[in-house]
Structure formats: structure tokens, C-alpha cells
Design a protein that fits this description.
about 725 residues, alpha/beta, 2-enoyl-CoA Hydratase, Chain A, domain 1, Rossmann fold, N-(1-d-carboxylethyl)-l-norvaline Dehydrogenase, domain 2, 4 domains, eight-stranded mixed beta sheet, 27 helices, 19 strands, about 45% helix, about 10% strand, globular, binds ligand LJ3UWUTL, binds 1,4-dihydronicotinamide adenine dinucleotide
Length: about 725
Amino acid sequence: MAQYSRVSGTVGLITLLNPPVNALSAAVRQGIVDTLDKALSDRKVKSVVICGHNGKFCGGADIREFSSPLTGPPLIPLIQGVESAAKPVVAAIDGVALGGGLELALGCHYRIAHSKARLGLPEVHLGLLPGAGGSQRLPRLIGVPAALDLITTGRHVTGAEALQLGLVDKVTDRNTVDEAVKFALSVADQPPNSRRVSTFPCPRHPDLDALFEGAMQRVRQRARGALAPVACVQAIRAAATLPYAQGMERERELMATLFTSGQARAQQYHFFAQRAVGRWSMPSGARWDTTKPGAVHKAMVIGLGTMGRGISVALVQAGVSVVAMETNEKQLMEAKQAISSMLERGAKRRGVAPALDKIRYSWNMEPAADVDLVIEAVFEDMALKKKLFQQLSALCKPGTFLCSNTSGLDVDQLASETRHPELVVGMHFFAPAHVMKLLEVVYGSRSSPQAVATAMELGKRMGKVSVAVGNCRGFVGNRMLKPYLEQAFFLLEEGTTPEFVDQVLEEFGFAMGVFRMSDLSGLDVGWRVRKADGLLNVSEGHSARIRQGCRYSPLGDLLCEQGRFGQKTGRGWYQYDKPGGRVAKPDPWLHGFLEKFRTQHGLVAHRIDHQEVLERCLYALMNEGFRILEDGIAAGPEDIDVIYVLGYSWPPHRGGPMFYAGMVGLQKVLERLEHYHQEHPDIPSLKPCNLLRKLVVNGSPPVHKWREFLKKPQSQL
Ligand SMILES: CCCCCCCCCCCCCC(=O)CC(=O)SCCNC(=O)CCNC(=O)[C@H](O)C(C)(C)COP(=O)(O)OP(=O)(O)OC[C@H]1O[C@@H](n2cnc3c(N)ncnc32)[C@H](O)[C@@H]1OP(=O)(O)O
Ligand SMILES: NC(=O)C1=CN([C@@H]2O[C@H](COP(=O)(O)OP(=O)(O)OC[C@H]3O[C@@H](n4cnc5c(N)ncnc54)[C@H](O)[C@@H]3O)[C@@H](O)[C@H]2O)C=CC1
């Protein structure tokens, strides 16, 4: 709804009221229509101010209403009504003006913003475009290049940046509503005719064709296969080339296509899934809303390699004092330099001073005695980590939380080395740790709710989306990666090439196919893990393609034995112009190697098509996701999907693997898995899991109902 009052004698004040972000629900839209009518028909009122309750102008359309038929007044004529008002209307922008909220402000004749307010048109992240005139008004107000940037990236700008762009008329550091009321008084006698943005000509640009071509290329590269960014560019092109009314018609057509697309549904699901994972619970019944996190003022990071450096930066940027510890002298020197320059770059981007004084470095463990939390990021070696946890347990003050950044080792084993296993949790970051938004918080069987709450909260402070997961090999993300990678290797054995597999996966929307990704992260990483798992030993009398009773592909190991570790050595699944080179080229040597391998193992290459690559890689991964749900390692499909979109570059417009399974149809996923498992009975990961069967038997319910079919795991506390 919206509240109305008359202030300072002649200003009609409309306050949007729909906590927490004053989203434009049907009731709010009706409220705006009614209160605007009141203001315009009150002869004492000379000008109008629109603001939002509780310091937030408006978070945009109410996304929850998108899944049901429209009720209440539609937004486009509502904004048109504001713009065509005969009395000046001023938007008082505090907190946020996003999506439909900013579109409403664009319909006002003046915009006053707090310098710290955040303004933006983030619809592209919801699979939409600014479809309430935003794609037509914004370029008219701030020019085409700036509008392209804001609309296709969906990025927020501060009030201060908005002023520079010409998006707002004034910024203030004082009370925005008071300033807007003063402003409204000052323009009360000025007819708003010349202030209607829809009547502005779109500022000219010397080479529109090149501008739009460049923009189209960029959005296609950034989000392969996503419809919304492309539609955003098309709508802005309409603004630049057509009269307003025709541009609006084009905006409406494009919006209608997006609105009904599966992609918009997927991205809106992802929006709510990201928020839902914050409402974690543990098998014991401990929950996010009843558990108080411990205070973390000072933390220690142990091991300053790839991960430790990023983790230290993320902690410092979150305001935590850090002691960064490393035993290798050269690494320590390099880490100091790398961390300082990451902090400096980050501070420059955010327009603040780098908090270099928040971090100090150490050769030894002594400072552990005085910290609230430790994050260990040494080599992935259980014996080494165990020793470290023993030392920490003896050194740290009572109550210090002990966390490991292990990618998949048993958190319970680490906890068992300590005097207080309840203080131990996994904090699994993703590289680069100061950039990637995902954090898997791994609770072991003895982790206390407070330890989980502390890690979840610390993740949030670092700007991450934290997902609580149970303890098993590889947790959620890496556990699901295993069958996916395995299928890719098997497909090579059976007749295809890395280029073809990657092309199929990149067309699906992944930023990188599995082989390019593997070259980037280093083939030796998986090799070391397989070695530790005893998978490199061929049992006597068995084929090299069978290990521990199951089908196994030794291809990755054979490349590593030749020193082909990927990009860093200039050779891997592809060839590069030099070690560290970035451009992957098909490698004739690799093709010959694959042929030799097939001959040696009596394999006859067959034609593998697009469908088989996609289904075998993705369905095997989803199948593991169903198993993870069955085992109670993830609380629900949303948790898995958030992990995959934020941590493994699963395309957001496909929602995540579990959501995608629902889109494809669970029945179809089941049938295809059955088919592939019949063809390859020696690959257990292709055997459809029970939960998938159960869901199909129960009529393939939508993804938000799957939790009803999950067993309640036994309490592990
Ligand atoms: C056949 C069809 C034909 C169609 C024809 C087409 C014609 C269409 C005409 C016009 C359509 C107009 C469409 C439009 O206006 C487009 C939009 O406005 S889309 C929405 C754009 N806005 C956003 O994307 C903002 C989303 N929100 C945020 O980014 C953050 O929430 C925000 C920065 C505002 C605040 O962040 P923070 O403080 O961190 O809080 P939370 O994120 O945790 O949010 C708190 C709480 O609020 C819920 N929420 C936030 N925004 C919205 C929203 N816009 N709608 C509904 N709910 C929202 C959020 O989910 C949290 O609640 P939980 O319960 O925790 O989930
Ligand atoms: N690299 C990645 O993408 C990811 C790695 N991880 C995990 O993070 C951990 C670290 O991985 P990386 O940073 O890649 O390794 P890394 O090899 O880059 O760095 C490890 C660092 O630990 C230091 N170190 C070894 N023993 C130590 C000790 N006793 N005390 C202090 N420092 C010691 C080494 O000198 C080295 O600098 C591993 O458990 C890994 O599985 C988790 C997520 C992603």
C-alpha cells in the first residue's frame, strides 16, 4: 500500500509501504494510483514527493507476483500517469531504487537521491528487461552507452555516480525526504512539461551500428545462450532509433517473450534460492534463526598459497583483523606482495583506503593463541592437516573456531584431532576466494550449531552466499563434479574429442567446457587426489580401465605422466603457445594419443552426438545431486543449485542442475539414465538413484515440493 499526507503546507507526500523493500505489489500499485489522485485533485497541493517507508525507496516489482496472473493496476500506465501529472513530482531516493522502482523514479519529473542510495535496473538477472519504460526512458536521460552498460550488466550505482551520469538531479547526505520536500517547494510553480523523460530525444551517437554490434558481442560472450541480455540490447536500440511510442511497443513485445520463457523462471528461482539457503538447519533441528553466531574480530589464515591469499583479502575487506601465516619463506614474501596489491586494487574499486594495517604476517603458529577463528588452507593432505589441527587445539584460547578450506577431506577426522570437535567446521571457498560469491560451510557430525552459524555469518560478512552442507567426500559441489568429469573422459575413450565435448557444454551455457576448465585448474590436482585415493594402482590381472571394481579412465593420469598439466605447462587436453598461455588450440598429438589408446584397449570409436555428450555429462551430475539429497548432505535442491550457479559457472538462466532436471522432465531424465546405464552397466554413476525414481512415481512434483519426499536424516548431534 501507500500512505498519503500533506507536508509543509503544499507538498503531497506519498510513502510506499511494503516492507522490507517496498516492492511494487498490486496493493502498492493501487496505493500509488489512489494517493496520486488525491494529491493531484487537492488544490492546496502544488507539488508531490514520492518516497519509500523505512529509508528504502523501492526494490522494484514484487517478484513473487510474477508467477500468478496480474492483479491490480499495471505499472506502465501507472508510471505514465505520474509522468503526465500537471504538478511537479519528485522522487526521494533513499536505500534502493531498483528495477520497477527506478522506472517509477524515471517517470517522476525530478530525482533527489541520498549519496549512498543504490540505483539500478537489475532485471537482466531475473531473465527480464526493464519493461515498464526503463529501456526507453533511461537512454533518453543518460545516453545510449551508459544505458547499455547499466541495463545489460544490471549493476547498481550509488547516488553519487548517478549524479555524474545525469540519472538524478541532486544528491544529499542529509535526510533525503526533507531535501526532496524542500526541492518540491522550490519547483512548485514550474510546469513539469519540459521534465517528462519520455519526450526527450535520445542523445545522438556518432556510430550507433558499431555501438550496438559491440554491445551484442559482449552480452553474447558474457552469458552464452541467455535471452535477456540480448533483448535488453534490442530494446535500447529501439529507444535510440524509434519514436517513444514505437519503442514502448518493441519493449512490450520483447518483455512478453522473456516473461514467458523458461529462462526468466529459472533466474527468478535462483534469486529466491540464494536467499533461501541462508535459512539453514541441521539434522539436529538447530536453525539459522535460533542460533547466535560467535563474534569474530580476529582470524588467522594458515597457508598462503592460491586460496589462503584470497581468503585473507576477503576477511580484511570484511573488517576482520588477520594474521596470515606461512612456513615457506618464498611463499610468504610473494603472498605479502600479492595480498597488498589485491587489497589496494579492491580499495581503489570501492573508493576507500586499503586496510593494509588490518593484516600482519607470521612464520609461526604462536599468534593462534589470540584469535577468534582459524582458517587452514595448507596442501590437501590429510596427515598434514591433522597435525595442524592437533597443534591448533593445544594453542588456541578456549572457544576459538577451527575451520578448514579442504576441498573434500573428512571434516570429522580433522575434528577428532582436537579437544573441542564441536568448534570445527569446513569453510570451503572457491578460487579466487576474494571474488567468488560461494562458500560451502561443512558441518561434521560433531560441529556445534554455533560453529555453523559463525561460519555462515562470517561468509555473509565477506559478501558471500553461504550454503550449509553435510560432510562427505567432496561435499556437494566436488562430489557432483566427479561423475561429470568421469563421463567426459569416457566419452573421449569412446570416440569424441575434447573440443567437441567443450563446444557442447559451452553452447549449453558454461563459461568453459570441462576440458578447458581442467586445463585451467591443472590436471595434476585431480591426479594427486586419485593417487591419494589409491586409484592409480592397477590390480593384477585387471584391465587398466577397471579400478576398485568400476570402470575407470586412466586418460588424465597418462597425460600427467607426460608432464601435461594443462595451461601452466603449455600442454594438457589442448596445446598453448607457451606455458601459462591462455589460448587453447586443438592438439593433433592428443588426437593421435586417443587413437592409440583406443587401439591398445580394443575400443572402436563411434560417433557421439551433441545429445549424448550433454545427457551423459549433465544427467550423471544431476543423478549425483539426487543422491546427495537422498543422503541428507544438502537440505534441498535450492542448496545444490546455488552451489552450482555460484561456484561452478552453471548458467543462471538454467537455474541450476536440479531445477534443470525439473525443466527437462524427471521422467525423461530417468529414462535416459536407464538407457545409458543399460549401455554401460559398469558405470555406477549412471544408475538412476532411488529419489529420482520416487519423484517420478509421485508424478514428478515441481522442485519446491521435493523436500516433502526427502527422508528426515537421523540427528547426528
Ligand atoms: C504474458 C505476459 C506478458 C507480459 C507483458 C510484459 C509487461 C510487463 C510490464 C511491467 C513489468 C514490470 C517489471 C518490473 O518492474 C521489473 C522489476 O522491477 S523486476 C524486480 C527488480 N528488482 C530487483 O531485482 C531487486 C531485487 N532485490 C534485491 O536485489 C535485494 O533484495 C535488495 C538490494 C533490494 C535488498 O537486499 P538485502 O538488503 O540484502 O535484502 P534481501 O535481498 O535479503 O531481501 C530481503 C527480502 O526481500 C525480498 N525481496 C527483495 N526484493 C524483492 C522484490 N523485488 N520482490 C519481492 N521480494 C523481494 C527478498 O526475497 C527477501 O525476502 P526473503 O523472504 O528472504 O526471500
Ligand atoms: N586451489 C583451489 O582452487 C582450491 C583449493 N582448495 C583447498 O585449499 C587448500 C589450499 O589449496 P591451494 O591454496 O590451492 O594450495 P597451494 O599449494 O597454492 O598453497 C598451500 C600453501 O600452504 C603452505 N603450507 C604447507 N604446509 C604448511 C604449514 N604447515 N603451515 C603453514 N603453511 C603451510 C604452502 O607453503 C603453500 O603456500 C587445499 O586444501 C585445497 O584442496 C579449496 C578450494 C579451491
